[in-house]
Amino acid sequence: MQTIALHHILLKSPLLAQDLAKELELGADFAELAREYSACLSSREGGFAGYHQQDDLPIEIINALAIHDDQKPFTGPVSTPLGFHLLKPVGEKPKLAISDHTNDDLAKDLREDISSESAEKPSVEAIPEEASL
Length: 133
Hints:
CATH topology: Chitinase A, domain 3
Oligomer: single chain
Number of domains: 1
Strand order of the largest sheet: 2-1-4-3
């Protein structure tokens, strides 16, 4: 089982997540934004939430990290039951379980799924105040 160093900014609002993603695209510092905006206790560490076994993380996070194209220094926003995450990939990409797809086919399918979800108007979900990884 693979261990993943998780660097993230956890947000409760999809609109704030989109705004911060734009700031990151313009060159904002990930750690500074995490300290200021993240709802996770990892905000104190600039968004570093520690090392986690791949199976312990939400599948949405694993998928997003696995298909990250290395062209951007972050990925997201990624919606999970905990909220909306902006992720900073660090280290080796997670390995996905392979079924009838090749790695390239699976990554393409996941990118298409994520693109179609982000094109839809985000809905605000109730997220517990104590939610963190």
